[in-house]
């Protein structure tokens, strides 16, 4: 598979080839440039935060790990004996997951995925960000209904980033003409690779609940972290 403008995949491949200090540069319209240590994408269950461990415990049935990256969650679930499929757009990530022995790996955009049904969709590391914006979130929840069995669930991590707009006096400064504050523009770079600008959604739990219930899901917040991040479960009714 050719890696064209695949910064995450190229960095993952370099890490597997021995560059243990590989880092992906993350640019956004919200903060200064940040970096992702590629080693973090290969973390073991012993290195995972409490939220992720809880999500893995709640997985059941056929699992689809959406935006699986280097595959650390898929690998952990496979080792627990679950029927897990890892899906990612990145050619380099898909190569890496197969090289690590993950049995079911698909290179695909989840919005183009069809023909299979799952009991659990897993979206960690703010995986629901792929929705891009609030309109995309509605489309995402409509589409995931076609991927879930009756009684199926979505386990997703996101964050309420309102705290990033707080002033020193505790007030919040928002541009009301700029749309929902959780819609962020990103670009990711590694060596000659870059994604180009793309939208990424951070959704606060109250708004997520409104959108989920409008699409026929129940909503349950399973975990809340220190910095606005949380784990939610959206579930469809049983047949």
UniProtKB/TrEMBL annotation:
Keywords: Methyltransferase, Transferase. One of its GO terms (molecular function) is methyltransferase activity. GO terms for biological process: methylation. It comes from the Bacteria. This is Methyltransferase family protein. The keyword Nucleotide-binding does not apply. InterPro entries: Methyltransf_25, SAM-dependent_MTases_sf. Residues 63-152 form the Methyltransferase domain. It comes from Pontibacter virosus. It holds the Pfam family Methyltransf_25.
